[in-house]
Design a protein that fits this description.
Blueprint: E1 4-14, E2 40-49, E3 56-63, H1 69-82, E4 87-91, H2 100-108, E5 112-116, H3 127-138, H4 146-162, H5 164-172
Protein backbone atom coordinates (compact mmCIF):
# COMPACT_ATOMS: atom_id res chain seq x y z
CA UNK A 1 0.00 0.00 0.00
CA UNK A 2 1.27 3.47 -0.87
CA UNK A 3 1.24 6.64 1.18
CA UNK A 4 -1.10 9.62 1.16
CA UNK A 5 0.69 12.66 -0.19
CA UNK A 6 -0.42 15.96 1.40
CA UNK A 7 0.66 19.40 0.22
CA UNK A 8 0.33 21.90 3.10
CA UNK A 9 0.40 25.68 3.24
CA UNK A 10 -0.82 28.54 5.44
CA UNK A 11 -2.49 31.82 4.57
CA UNK A 12 -4.04 34.83 6.26
CA UNK A 13 -7.34 36.56 5.55
CA UNK A 14 -7.66 40.18 6.69
CA UNK A 15 -10.75 42.25 7.38
CA UNK A 16 -9.26 44.72 4.92
CA UNK A 17 -10.90 43.87 1.61
CA UNK A 18 -8.82 42.45 -1.20
CA UNK A 19 -9.72 44.45 -4.27
CA UNK A 20 -9.90 42.81 -7.68
CA UNK A 21 -11.05 43.92 -11.07
CA UNK A 22 -14.82 44.43 -11.10
CA UNK A 23 -17.65 45.94 -13.12
CA UNK A 24 -18.94 49.50 -12.74
CA UNK A 25 -20.88 51.93 -14.88
CA UNK A 26 -18.66 53.58 -17.49
CA UNK A 27 -16.70 56.48 -16.03
CA UNK A 28 -17.52 55.61 -12.41
CA UNK A 29 -14.72 54.12 -10.34
CA UNK A 30 -16.10 51.57 -7.88
CA UNK A 31 -15.64 52.57 -4.25
CA UNK A 32 -15.29 49.96 -1.54
CA UNK A 33 -15.79 51.56 1.87
CA UNK A 34 -14.41 49.73 4.88
CA UNK A 35 -13.19 50.19 8.42
CA UNK A 36 -9.42 50.01 8.80
CA UNK A 37 -8.93 47.01 11.06
CA UNK A 38 -6.08 44.55 11.21
CA UNK A 39 -8.08 41.61 12.56
CA UNK A 40 -7.56 38.43 10.60
CA UNK A 41 -8.15 34.72 10.31
CA UNK A 42 -5.12 32.48 9.89
CA UNK A 43 -5.68 29.30 7.92
CA UNK A 44 -3.77 26.10 7.24
CA UNK A 45 -4.81 23.55 4.68
CA UNK A 46 -3.58 20.47 2.90
CA UNK A 47 -4.46 18.98 -0.46
CA UNK A 48 -4.20 15.21 -0.11
CA UNK A 49 -3.65 12.77 -2.93
CA UNK A 50 -4.74 9.19 -2.25
CA UNK A 51 -2.16 6.41 -2.74
CA UNK A 52 -3.78 5.46 -6.05
CA UNK A 53 -3.85 9.16 -7.15
CA UNK A 54 -7.54 8.87 -7.95
CA UNK A 55 -9.07 10.87 -5.15
CA UNK A 56 -8.18 14.27 -3.75
CA UNK A 57 -9.27 15.85 -0.49
CA UNK A 58 -8.86 19.21 1.16
CA UNK A 59 -8.37 19.48 4.91
CA UNK A 60 -8.25 22.85 6.64
CA UNK A 61 -8.28 24.58 10.02
CA UNK A 62 -8.93 28.23 10.85
CA UNK A 63 -7.32 30.07 13.77
CA UNK A 64 -7.87 33.54 15.25
CA UNK A 65 -4.12 34.03 15.80
CA UNK A 66 -0.95 33.51 13.80
CA UNK A 67 -0.11 29.90 13.07
CA UNK A 68 2.80 28.53 15.06
CA UNK A 69 4.12 25.13 16.09
CA UNK A 70 1.05 24.33 18.22
CA UNK A 71 -1.40 25.04 15.40
CA UNK A 72 0.74 23.15 12.86
CA UNK A 73 0.78 20.12 15.19
CA UNK A 74 -3.01 20.36 15.68
CA UNK A 75 -3.45 20.33 11.92
CA UNK A 76 -1.13 17.34 11.48
CA UNK A 77 -3.12 15.51 14.20
CA UNK A 78 -6.31 16.20 12.24
CA UNK A 79 -4.74 14.79 9.07
CA UNK A 80 -3.64 11.63 10.85
CA UNK A 81 -7.16 11.11 12.24
CA UNK A 82 -8.61 11.24 8.72
CA UNK A 83 -5.97 9.41 6.69
CA UNK A 84 -5.12 5.74 7.15
CA UNK A 85 -1.65 4.36 6.55
CA UNK A 86 1.52 6.31 5.83
CA UNK A 87 1.25 10.06 5.27
CA UNK A 88 3.89 12.15 3.51
CA UNK A 89 3.32 15.83 4.21
CA UNK A 90 5.16 18.33 2.04
CA UNK A 91 5.37 21.97 3.09
CA UNK A 92 7.63 24.98 2.79
CA UNK A 93 10.69 25.90 4.84
CA UNK A 94 8.81 28.12 7.33
CA UNK A 95 10.20 28.09 10.86
CA UNK A 96 6.92 26.68 12.19
CA UNK A 97 7.58 23.53 10.16
CA UNK A 98 10.77 22.81 12.06
CA UNK A 99 11.77 22.59 15.69
CA UNK A 100 11.18 20.43 18.72
CA UNK A 101 7.35 20.30 18.64
CA UNK A 102 7.38 19.08 15.03
CA UNK A 103 10.14 16.53 15.70
CA UNK A 104 8.21 15.27 18.76
CA UNK A 105 5.11 14.92 16.59
CA UNK A 106 7.03 12.75 14.12
CA UNK A 107 8.37 10.58 16.94
CA UNK A 108 4.83 10.05 18.31
CA UNK A 109 3.49 9.20 14.85
CA UNK A 110 6.00 7.09 12.90
CA UNK A 111 3.62 6.85 9.93
CA UNK A 112 3.98 10.62 9.42
CA UNK A 113 6.86 11.69 7.19
CA UNK A 114 7.60 15.37 6.61
CA UNK A 115 9.34 16.74 3.55
CA UNK A 116 10.21 20.33 2.66
CA UNK A 117 9.78 22.13 -0.62
CA UNK A 118 12.90 23.96 -1.80
CA UNK A 119 13.24 27.50 -0.42
CA UNK A 120 11.27 30.18 -2.27
CA UNK A 121 9.31 27.75 -4.44
CA UNK A 122 5.60 28.45 -3.85
CA UNK A 123 4.90 27.57 -7.48
CA UNK A 124 5.54 23.91 -6.59
CA UNK A 125 2.87 23.74 -3.88
CA UNK A 126 -0.64 22.88 -5.16
CA UNK A 127 -2.12 24.21 -1.91
CA UNK A 128 -1.20 27.74 -3.06
CA UNK A 129 -3.96 27.25 -5.65
CA UNK A 130 -6.48 26.69 -2.87
CA UNK A 131 -5.62 30.08 -1.37
CA UNK A 132 -5.82 31.73 -4.78
CA UNK A 133 -9.31 30.31 -5.37
CA UNK A 134 -10.52 31.25 -1.88
CA UNK A 135 -9.17 34.80 -2.11
CA UNK A 136 -10.73 35.26 -5.55
CA UNK A 137 -14.08 34.23 -4.12
CA UNK A 138 -13.73 36.68 -1.21
CA UNK A 139 -12.47 39.55 -3.40
CA UNK A 140 -14.30 42.85 -3.21
CA UNK A 141 -16.08 41.77 -0.06
CA UNK A 142 -16.30 44.15 2.88
CA UNK A 143 -16.49 42.19 6.13
CA UNK A 144 -17.12 44.24 9.27
CA UNK A 145 -16.19 41.50 11.73
CA UNK A 146 -14.30 38.24 11.97
CA UNK A 147 -17.66 36.44 11.78
CA UNK A 148 -18.50 38.31 8.56
CA UNK A 149 -15.20 37.06 7.15
CA UNK A 150 -15.35 33.51 8.55
CA UNK A 151 -18.72 32.57 7.02
CA UNK A 152 -17.79 33.20 3.36
CA UNK A 153 -14.28 31.84 3.94
CA UNK A 154 -15.66 28.56 5.28
CA UNK A 155 -18.13 28.45 2.41
CA UNK A 156 -15.35 28.97 -0.15
CA UNK A 157 -13.10 26.31 1.39
CA UNK A 158 -15.96 23.81 1.65
CA UNK A 159 -16.90 24.44 -2.01
CA UNK A 160 -13.29 23.87 -3.08
CA UNK A 161 -13.11 20.71 -0.92
CA UNK A 162 -16.23 19.26 -2.60
CA UNK A 163 -14.86 19.77 -6.11
CA UNK A 164 -12.45 17.19 -7.48
CA UNK A 165 -12.11 19.39 -10.58
CA UNK A 166 -10.95 22.42 -8.56
CA UNK A 167 -8.52 20.35 -6.51
CA UNK A 168 -7.13 18.75 -9.67
CA UNK A 169 -6.72 22.21 -11.21
CA UNK A 170 -4.63 23.26 -8.18
CA UNK A 171 -2.31 20.32 -8.81
CA UNK A 172 -2.22 20.82 -12.59
CA UNK A 173 -1.39 24.51 -12.22
CA UNK A 174 1.52 23.86 -9.88
CA UNK A 175 4.96 23.34 -11.36
CA UNK A 176 5.30 19.82 -9.94
CA UNK A 177 7.04 17.77 -12.62
CA UNK A 178 5.43 14.40 -11.89
CA UNK A 179 1.78 15.46 -11.94
Amino acid sequence: MGAHLVFIDESGFLLLPSVRKTWAPRGQTPILRHKTRRDKISAISGVSVSPQRRHLNLYFELFPTNIGHVEACLFLDQLLRHLRGPVIAVWDNASIHKGDPIRAMCRRHPRLHLELFPSYAPELNPDEGVWKLAKEELANGRPDSIEDLAVPLLSALERIARSQALLRSCIRHSDLPFF
